[in-house]
């Protein structure tokens, strides 16, 4: 469906699927909620920086709900093209018809667009966000010969895991400088215990044990482990334990085996588990 020219609104509730109706649980760790609200109010694009599984995506879900904006999330990957974000002409029964990509849909309709792991995409793809991140707030749809002015509520959020970056795979300096960055890391023990207990539905002592295991596993980072155990992995172990899997086995399948193939590292992680249970 051609959705019209310029900043014309999306008809009906085309964004119904992107609205978050019930509050996603998010336990703030610092001042991230106020920072995001201030950035949104100023329409400043936001970069969420931090390791995988530490709550960035959950935070965006929560903020979209809190601000009452639809959320369009795109998981970026290296085969993604600018057309995957912006849109393309496609053939259907009526002939050649333009289809908005997720970024265009968000720009047109005033949604929050969350580009998850942006650096996974090639630089010739990410360049399309440039004109959206400065005062112009426009998106050129080159193939359509149209320049789309962003809806006043459009907001761009990207996530970025500094640990994965290499010189080749990094955001351009000129792109980075257009964002405000909110730093995420794994929360302190008491807060992470609360999150694991809540998300896995386990009691506090078990959640605390899992968090202590997580801390030990994170200490092995840099000694052969690329990333330590994330909050997500601790929750996974908790979910298995809740279903009756013995805690050591739950930790092995959720915390140890997924992150290493190295027998020595596996033994080191297993002893970290054994020391805590
Ligand atoms: P990321 O996007 O950083 O890779 P996620 O947001 O997917 O990570 O977090 C992984 C899981 O950890 C979430 O699904 C959620 O269950 C839990 N989580 C992490 N941090 C928080 C937090 N502060 N509040 C609530 N849940 C959290």
Automatic annotation (TrEMBL):
Pfam families: AAA_5, CbbQ_C. InterPro entries: ATPase_dyneun-rel_AAA, CbbQ/NirQ/NorQ/GpvN, CbbQ_C, P-loop_NTPase. One of its GO terms (molecular function) is ATP binding. Belongs to the CbbQ/NirQ/NorQ/GpvN family. This is Protein CbbQ. Keywords: ATP-binding, Nucleotide-binding. The keyword Nucleus does not apply. Residues 192-275 form the CbbQ/NirQ/NorQ C-terminal domain. The lineage of its organism: Bacteria, Pseudomonadati, Pseudomonadota, Alphaproteobacteria, Hyphomicrobiales. Signal peptide: none annotated. Residues 45-179 form the ATPase dynein-related AAA domain.
């Amino acid at each position: 469906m051609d959705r019209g020219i310029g900043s014309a609104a999306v008809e009906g509730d085309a964004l119904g699927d992107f609205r978050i109706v019930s509050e996603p649980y998010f336990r703030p760790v610092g001042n991230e909620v106020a920072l995001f609200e201030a950035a949104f109010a100023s329409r400043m694009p936001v970069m969420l920086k931090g390791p995988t599984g530490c709550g960035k995506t959950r935070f965006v879900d929560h903020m979209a709900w809190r601000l009452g904006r639809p959320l369009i999330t795109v998981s970026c990957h290296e085969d993604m093209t600018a057309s995957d974000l912006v849109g393309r002409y496609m053939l259907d029964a009526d002939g050649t018809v333009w289809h908005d990509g997720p970024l265009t849909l968000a720009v047109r309709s005033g949604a929050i667009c969350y580009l998850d792991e942006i650096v996974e995409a090639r630089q010739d793809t990410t360049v399309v966000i440039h004109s959206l991140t400065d005062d112009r707030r426009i998106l050129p749809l080159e193939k359509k010969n149209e320049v789309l002015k962003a809806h006043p509520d459009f907001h761009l959020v990207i996530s970025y895991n500094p640990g994965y970056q290499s010189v080749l795979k990094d955001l351009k300096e000129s792109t980075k400088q257009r964002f405000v960055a909110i730093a995420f890391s794994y929360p302190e023990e008491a807060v992470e215990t609360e999150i694991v207990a809540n998300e896995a539905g386990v009691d506090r002592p078990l959640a605390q044990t899992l968090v202590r295991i997580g801390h030990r596993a994170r200490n092995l980072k840099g000694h052969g482990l690329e990333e330590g155990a994330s909050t997500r992995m601790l929750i996974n172990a908790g979910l298995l334990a809740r279903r009756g899997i013995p805690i050591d086995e739950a930790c092995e399948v959720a915390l140890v085996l997924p992150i290493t193939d190295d027998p020595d590292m596996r033994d080191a992680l297993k002893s970290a588990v054994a020391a805590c249970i």
